[in-house]
Design brief:
The protein is mainly beta and 203 residues long. Helices cover 3% and strands 43% of the residues. The strands form two sheets. Strands 1, 2, 3, 4, 6, 7, 9, 10, 12, 14, 16, 18 and 20 form a 13-stranded parallel sheet that branches. It has a seven-stranded parallel sheet with strand order 5-8-11-13-15-17-19.
Amino acid sequence: ACPADPGAALTRAVDHTGAPHGTVPVHSTLQAAYDAAQDGEVIGMFSQAVENVTLDGARSLNITRCTIARLTAGDPARPVWDITSTGALTIRGPEAVGGTIGWRIASGRHVVQSVSSTGQSQHGILVLGDDNSVSVDAVRGSLVGIRIEGHRNDLRPGGTVSDNSGNGLEIASAATGNTVRVGGIQGNAGHGVVVDGSGNLVS
């Protein structure tokens, strides 16, 4: 069972130890599992890995934390999670450590739920795409916690954005129609919230 998604029927597993997980194929990295998966598959993460992943193409997939689901940037000059897929992805529970950006969400219609990031040189979470649903557990220790440049994104209630060396949350000047309901924004060295765009709701 996977606590982040108890009803998930896994079709692939990620476990760098090579341990079996029922009869599903086991991959040592998330990138290998993602590249092998077909549309509609469910990938369960059971371990941590040192890698930067690019989630591209047009497949709609589900990636969920089962036990440990932590990615630490292998290349500090790249995002840890780089989401450019034109398919609709659902990602629940993983963490991002290091890199330039923890979560770079460059395309739209994704559900990124209960994720964490720490220690990025630029942004913990950068939302460039439109119509995404994002919720966080904790975003901390980056330059900017969360930055939104897209439109009609929904940052769901809960979680904390704290202890970043710059601003906690930024909404860019061209960004419109976004709804932001993060649970707690505190202890950031810059502003807690900076809103440059119009037509956004922050509560």
